[in-house]
Design brief:
By secondary structure, this protein is mainly beta. The protein has seven helices and 87 strands.
């Protein structure tokens, strides 16, 4: 036992002595001044070639070549290359050579591989302050560190450590180096702490066929920053993952591969950043701030030209863009959070809830200004806050914004601007249900070419200078060489933004000169205020006179004075533009008080051209109508009629009818069949009783009153106005002719002062007032429209209306007229209510008046008979009693005692009835709507009218492109298409040709009325 212990002790001692001997054998070996080959003894001081355990110090040039047919390994513990020292791998010098460093490596000199066959394997730390250019630099140890001021220029730097991190102890420089890892057991990372990472390359390559950039410098290994790190990129590629916050800067051009940032990312100012290929993904888990040009332009890097490439940027935090995003698709991802969007975006913006199909909620908020020049897709909630602005600047896309309603909404509390691309296409006429814009409109008619309409809504703010209006207003302006002639409009208001306005009295005001002047536009039968859905609608299809003709600025107010208008009264005139010769032509005069206050006296005039005469005036009275023939108004040849209204209540609307007729051709003036009717008025808004004063002045001139007599007449007129006010309150007698005002005034003077001299001058001669007709034509209108400032642009009546048309002499009164559609067959697409007029006539050959007139219309099955509404008739009033009834789908009019005379002197033997009815819902395209009526005079045979036809056409034409014959180098190609409409449709009108170049967007390149064109298109549409 003692012997065994003794032997064991001796063995331990021998082992200890052996280890001690080996440790003693480790040495610092330095190269000689002349240097030489690594394997030569003369290269090293003392003639000792370094071994695995030696520390090697290089002070001169040492050659580390490979073997003739095999690789050569050079081992050492620590390696130090002093300034002036070199390790080189010569050209054409055998096979591979490896530098194996089990310890640390400090380089202050140069290590250069001239043969691309020289690798370094390092298990310790690297400090590089010199030139380091091996083929491969492999980190293979544990807890390794990297530092130094020099550039690591290995062709490939492999992070193959046994543990996870290579840790930086200073700013790091990689030049012309691919930095990655060739092992996958553990994710290897470069831990930069708070130091700067620099990536550089001498050259860049671009493969135009694949659209891909290549660089000698590329980093794809994950990078970790402790705080806010900086990466400088010069012609290099960066990909992989960045942990922590990072800022990317570039003095020339930075190229990104698929890159994920697990923190915030900032792109520095003046930097140019692009994806190295198409559809690179840049994913930022935190905030993204951009001051750079991101995929903006084609740029030249030395001798290579790079075109911008699409990139997908996905950001899970706040986004601020102060630079350019180029053709990058920016995708804010809510992921259940509230994030903000700010800045200018040149490409598309795609708002989503998550990168995958999950729906975690959240929203994107715009607090400042955002400009988007591409398309906006909204798949997560987008909110524009009060004070925020969203400008959609794309002028090419027909629909620059899409909101997926089932999972997202666009909430606008601020300002929003967008372009509605019309491209002069009828199919693009509608701007309806636009998210966040609170406005719908449809263009009905325009001249020349309308390219687009710019629409801006200003939410949560009153119009500048009009602080009392509803806190939402619109600016709508068309762009193009044409002019919009008619359109419908619907504006949406919010009760929370009424700003003290009375909802029941809300109206739309328009300014065509950016707030200098305003006018009320939402008045009339087809201007509808809906206080349930909070909308105001102007205009109806099939009623051209009800539509607007000019865009501009639009505000909403109740008429409380918060919007300055030229007049508190708005007048309008509705009637057919073409005046029939000898037949009655009714025109309805509408008067609106558009304010919340009672008006002063209202004075209206209506003037006609010399080829028209007045027939009668029908005024409302005590729930009925009072008819005044023209000879009771004054001279039948007078071209001007004047009307007096004592006042209008707040927001009151009243109307009356004026009937005119055209003169035969022999009596017309040389106006080439053009006729004009002008309506206007003065409303006492210049001075308290100026309208009354003017009547006194005109009467005084007509009958030669002196000043005292004028004063007495003014007193009588004042009594008359008060009497008319009383009559209006009691009988609803709103409108009075000027002649009746004069008669009433004479009576008041007579009642209060029977001996006055005024009576002797006027007396029943008050009718002489009509003798001022010549001056009424000249002076009255001049005074109304110029002296009180009612002349508008181009001398148009600002508060009235002009109607211009033609005299028509050939007219078949035994006919039915319905809605006018497209073409001879009157194709329609959207009209639901059909309006019909049935005309009848007692022929001049008749030997007796018609005592009874019966009209029957059996409406076809396409109509809903429950919606029938009887309209006005030609013979109305207390002397005419129509029996109007409906039995199922049969509509009847019956009148006895009409005594319709033979039509010897037209229009004495003519008349009409009107009605409306809705067509049934969901009628198929191609449905023909035909309607006719029968007319019976007394016991004579029925007279059948014509059949008025409309056809429903809801199906658009179809287009198929024909094959294209193309040879390389052709400057032009011929394209053609086969376009057909359904057999029951309205047919083909024209062909529109679109072209796409290099997979770019389609642009309109031409149009024709046959299906061939020389160009380079790939799409053909037909309208």
């Amino acid at each position: 036992m003692k012997e065994l212990k003794s032997r064991f002790s001796i063995l331990c001692l021998l082992t200890t002595l052996l280890l001690g001997s080996q440790m003693a054998m480790s040495a610092d070996i330095t190269s000689t001044a002349q240097g030489g080959k690594w394997s030569d003894k003369t290269t090293w001081t003392g003639g000792v070639v370094p071994t695995k355990t030696d520390n090697v110090i290089i002070t001169s040039t040492v050659t580390a070549n490979g073997g003739s047919y095999s690789s050569v390994n050079y081992y050492m513990k620590n390696l130090t290359v002093n300034k002036g020292g070199k390790i080189i791998r010569e050209k054409n010098s055998g096979s591979l050579s490896y530098l194996n460093i089990s310890g640390n490596f400090v380089n202050n000199g140069e290590i250069i591989d001239y043969n691309n066959y020289f690798d370094i394997w390092l298990s310790g730390n690297l400090e590089n302050n010199g030139i380091l250019k091996p083929r491969n630099l492999n980190f293979v140890g544990q807890k390794q560190q990297i530092s130094g001021s020099g550039s690591t220029e290995a062709t490939r730097v492999n992070l193959n450590m046994e543990d996870e991190f290579l840790e930086a102890k200073s700013d790091i420089h990689f030049k012309n180096a691919y930095v990655g890892s060739s092992v996958s057991q553990t994710a290897k990372k470069l831990n930069m702490n708070n130091f700067i990472l620099n990536l550089m390359a001498d050259s860049i390559r671009y493969d135009s066929y694949y659209g891909t950039a290549y660089s000698n410098s590329e980093l794809v290994i994950p990078v970790v920053f402790a705080g806010n790190g900086i990466i400088n990129i010069d012609n290099s590629l960066l990909g992989g993952t960045i942990y922590g916050n990072a800022g990317i800067k570039s003095a020339s051009y930075a190229f990104l591969k698929d890159l994920t940032v697990k923190g915030n990312l900032s792109l520095g100012s003046n930097a140019k950043v692009s994806g190295y290929a198409n559809r690179v993904k840049l994913i930022v888990d935190g905030d993204f701030t951009n001051y750079a040009d991101l995929n903006k332009d084609s740029v030249r890097v030395r001798s290579v030209k790079f075109a911008p490439r699409p990139m997908n940027l996905m950001v899970y935090g706040n986004i601020k863009n102060h630079g350019s995003t180029g053709i990058t698709r920016v995708s804010p991802v809510t992921n259940g959070k509230i994030i903000t969007l700010e800045g200018n975006y040149d490409g598309d913006v795609y708002i989503q809830q998550a990168e995958n199909s999950d729906k975690p909620g959240g929203k994107v908020v715009i607090k400042n200004e955002v400009n988007i020049s591409g398309k906006l897709d909204v798949y997560a909630d987008l909110e524009i806050t009060n004070g925020g602005t969203l400008n959609l600047l794309n002028k090419i896309l027909t629909s620059p914004v899409y909101v997926r309603a089932e999972q997202a909404k666009l909430i606008n509390h601020g300002k929003m601007n967008r372009y509605h691309r019309v491209n002069n296409a009828w199919s693009n006429r509608s701007f309806t249900a636009q998210d966040g814009m609170f406005a719908d409109y449809e263009l009905r008619e325009w001249s020349d070419r309308i390219e687009r309409v710019e629409v801006t809504v200003f939410n949560n703010q009153a119009y500048p200078g009009l602080p009392g209006t509803v806190k939402r207003w619109w600016r709508i302006n068309p762009e193009g060489t044409g002019k919009v002639k008619s359109f419908t409009l619907k504006l949406y208001y919010d009760e929370a933004l009424l700003n003290g306005q009375k909802e029941k009295n809300l109206k739309i005001y328009r300014s065509t000169d950016k707030g200098e002047t305003w006018e009320v536009v939402s008045v009339g039968e087809f201007a509808v205020l809906d206080t349930v859905v909070n909308t105001i609608t102007i205009g109806r299809w099939g009623e051209p006179a009800s539509m607007l003709s000019e865009f501009g600025d639009f505000v909403i107010s109740s008429g409380d004075g918060s919007v300055p208008v030229k007049s508190n009264i708005l007048v309008d005139m509705i009637g057919r533009p073409d005046v029939r010769v000898g037949a009655p032509n009714p025109f309805t005069i509408h008067i609106y008080n558009v304010t919340d206050t009672r008006t002063n006296p209202v004075f209206l005039t209506m003037a006609v051209s010399e080829d028209i005469r007045f027939k009668q005036v029908s005024l409302p009275y005590n729930g009925g109508v009072e008819v005044f023939p023209v000879d009771s108004l004054g001279d039948p040849n007078d071209l001007t009629q004047a009307f007096f209204i004592p006042y209008l209540e707040p927001n009151e609307h009243y109307s009356f009818d004026v009937t005119v007729y055209g003169l035969p051709g022999s009596l017309k003036s040389a106006s080439e069949n053009m006729v004009t009717l002008t309506l206007g008025g003065f409303f006492g808004h210049v001075a308290e009783d100026e309208a009354v004063d003017f009547i006194v002045d005109q009467v005084g001139q007509a009958v030669d009153l002196d000043q005292k007599e004028k004063e007495e007449y003014a007193r009588g007129l004042g009594l008359t106005v008060n009497q008319l006010k009383t009559e209006k309150q009691q009988y609803g007698k709103t409108v009075t002719t000027l002649r009746h005002v004069s008669k009433y005034t004479v009576k008041k003077i007579s009642d209060t002062n029977p001996v006055t001299k005024v009576l002797f001058k006027i007396g029943e001669g008050a009718e002489a007032v009509h003798k001022i007709k010549d001056s009424l034509r000249r002076r009255l209108f001049h005074w109304f429209y110029k002296e009180v400032g009612l002349y508008g642009v181009e001398e148009k009546v600002a508060s009235g209306k002009n109607i211009e048309g033609k005299l028509v002499s050939s007219w078949d009164p035994n006919e039915i007229i319905g809605p006018k559609g497209y073409g001879d067959e009157n194709f329609i697409a959207s009209i639901t209510k059909m309006n019909y007029t049935i005309f009848f006539e007692n022929l001049k050959e008749a030997t007796a008046p018609a005592y009874r007139v019966q009209i029957m219309d059996t409406i076809p099955a396409v109509f809903n008979p429950e919606t029938v509404k009887f309209g006005p008739t030609s013979h109305s009033g207390p002397n005419y009693k129509w029996k109007m009834e409906r039995n199922g789908n049969i509509i009847k009019w019956d009148i006895e005692g009409i005594e319709l005379p033979p039509n010897i002197t037209p229009p004495e033997g003519e008349g009409f009835v009107t009605f409306s009815v809705n067509i049934k819902k969901d009628l198929p395209s191609g449905t023909k709507i035909e309607n006719a009526a029968t007319i019976i005079f007394d016991m004579n045979p029925p007279i059948r009218t014509n059949t008025w036809t409309n056809i429903i056409d809801m199906i658009a034409p179809k287009t198929v492109m024909n094959p294209i014959n193309y040879s390389g180098g052709n400057e032009k190609i011929i394209v053609s298409c086969n376009s057909t409409d359904n057999t029951q449709g309205s047919g083909l009108n024209r062909f529109l040709f679109f072209a796409s170049v290099n997979n770019g967007p389609f642009n309109l390149v031409g149009e024709s009325f046959y299906n061939r064109k020389k160009l380079v298109p790939v799409l053909c549409l037909v309208s």
